[in-house]
Amino acid sequence: IFVDATKAEYDSFFEFAREKLKVGGVLIADNINSHKEVLQDFVKNVKLDSNFKAEVLDLGSGLLVAFREF
Fold this sequence. Notes:
This protein is an alpha+beta fold. It has helices at residues 10-20, 36-48, and strands at residues 2-3, 26-30, 52-57, 63-68.
């Protein structure tokens, strides 16, 4: 799932991904660094979810890549 939408909706997209992604699925979210203040809670929520392994990559405007492990 690739997320590049209204920043206030990122948390809703993560909730959707949590329900839909199977083990091995990937969520990629754009603009993580360019909208750091607005997306800091989103990044924190994804990283704290024990079902996902997530990293922020410093590519372009910043990407969060989250792999569904469990």
